[in-house]
Automatic annotation (TrEMBL):
InterPro entries, per the entry: ARM-like, WAPL, WAPL_C, WAPL_dom
Lineage: Eukaryota, Metazoa, Echinodermata, Eleutherozoa, Echinozoa
Domain WAPL: 1-210
Region feature (Disordered): 183-210
Stated name of the protein: Putative wings apart-like protein-like
Transmembrane spans: none
Pfam families referenced in this protein's UniProt entry, alphabetically: WAPL
Family: Belongs to the WAPL family.
Protein's organism: Stichopus japonicus (Sea cucumber)
Low complexity: compositionally biased ranges: 191-200
Length: 210
């Protein structure tokens, strides 16, 4: 597993420059390695703890960077805005696959694991990135993948705050925009109720009126 983690770290370092310039070779390496780690950590607490503790949180830091990279790339290069038969479209599909695999791995590492939830929640910007995966990112990916994204992202948020007071406080105090569908609905109805910054809890719990 240590070799796989090393490959993840190397690929993230190589890819983490301009999110619009990710190379296929890096994302393929990341996807393959993350899927391997996802499989070995599923319902295996020994492997989960080993990876959490490995080399001063090396994997956790790399996964946080990879998650941010995927989120930013999808926002600037939506899957449905590319040539369906071109290299950019293939890259966009791989980035979405990588995002979902990353979320599944993070879910494994935070499942009933207070220490893992604490260490993962401490990564700079990670909780906000996961929040964006719930509130904004679904509009940029194919409809048939939105449910998976929402379930995985919400599941990870729940894991992060369920047994950790610090993470819960961070999420409660976080400010964000209304969800994309609430903003779209406000535009249609000429309402101002879903415009501007709100608390993360308000954004997560708001209901559609139409």
């Amino acid at each position: 597993m240590a070799n796989t983690v090393a490959k993840v770290t190397e690929a993230v370092t190589a890819a983490h420059t301009d999110p619009t310039q990710i190379e296929l070779v890096h994302i393929r390496t990341l996807n393959r390695c993350v899927r391997v780690l996802e499989n070995v950590t599923f319902m295996n607490t020994d492997n989960q703890q080993y990876l959490l503790e490995l080399s001063n949180l090396t994997l956790i830091k790399a996964l946080a960077s990879f998650l941010s990279l995927c989120e930013k790339h999808i926002e600037v290069s939506p899957a449905d805005s590319t040539d369906p038969d071109g290299q950019d479209a293939n890259l966009s599909k791989l980035v979405i696959q990588g995002l979902l695999a990353n979320l599944r791995l993070l879910l494994n590492l935070t499942h009933n694991n207070e220490w893992g939830s604490m260490k993962i929640g401490e990564q700079d910007g990670l909780m906000f990135t996961v929040l964006q995966c719930v509130l904004q990112l679904p509009q940029f990916i194919p409809k048939d993948q939105r449910f998976d994204l929402l379930v995985l992202s919400l599941g990870l948020l729940i894991n992060l705050v369920e047994h950790n007071v610090t993470n819960a406080r961070i999420l409660t105090l976080m400010k964000t925009n209304h969800s994309y569908d609430s903003q779209a609905e406000a535009d249609q109805t000429k309402s101002e109720g879903s415009v501007g910054e709100v608390s993360s809890i308000s954004a997560l719990t708001e209901e559609k009126t139409g």
